[in-house]
Amino acid sequence: MAIDKNLAPWQILSVAVRSEIDAAAFYTRLQGKVKNILLIQKLKFLALEEEHHRKIIEKLLGQRYPGQPQEAPESSLMPPIGVSLPADPTVPALFEAALKAEETAEAYYNEAAGRSEDEAGRRILAYLGRVERSHQAMIKAELDLIAKFPDYYCVEDFHIAQDLFHVGP
Predict the structure, then answer these.
(1) For 68-85, how does the pLDDT look when each residue is reduced to its tens digit (9 = 90+)?
(2) Any alpha helices (H) in the chain, and if so which ranges?
């Protein structure tokens, strides 16, 4: 995602704060659409990570730009997760939207790091970009499971060994 060249550094961070708030809310809502206990735990982890990112960015914003507004804007310049989805999307479609959002967030942080005015800011933003990449790996793994086991997300516990059979002595 190309960051508007007219945005001040503190505004770039404010956009990131709003994005992290929206992402945490998305993962929290997604928990209500799945039944698999392990998947719910993974979604809780992702929501917690996004909340942690928000706190990191807010701290950076407060330290670097104390005279600027500290609250997140009401809406983000980054598109919310699933903005283009129908009213009642499928769980796989929600995971696909989450993957795209994580890719967008990684690109945003990488570009913001390149525009950062100081080494500490660059390092924090680069770190956040890398963490967004790890979220992509998690989501891709879940999408792979959903593709191979379509009922994976809608059962409380995975069907352990239900489809296996003994072939040895």
Answers:
(1) 877 777 766 666 676 677
(2) 9-31, 37-64, 91-115, 119-148
Measured at the alpha carbon of residue 40, what is the angle toward residues 29 and 13, in degrees to the nearest 5? Answer: 55
Give the span between the Cα atoms of 29 and 108, in whole angstroms.
24
| Residue 35 in this model has a pLDDT that exceeds 70 | yes
In whole angstroms, give the CA distance from residue 60 to residue 33: 34
Alpha-carbon 168 to chain mean position: 44
Residue 64 · residue 112 · CB < 8 Å = no
Two tokens, residue 28: 């929290």
- For the whole model, what pTM was predicted? 0.85
Alpha-carbon dihedral sign for residues 60, 64, 65, 67: positive
Question: Which pLDDT score is estimated for 93?
Answer: 93
CB-count burial class (<10 Å; 0-12, 13-18, 19+) for 122? middle
Fold held by 9-81+91-154: Ferritin (1.20.1260)
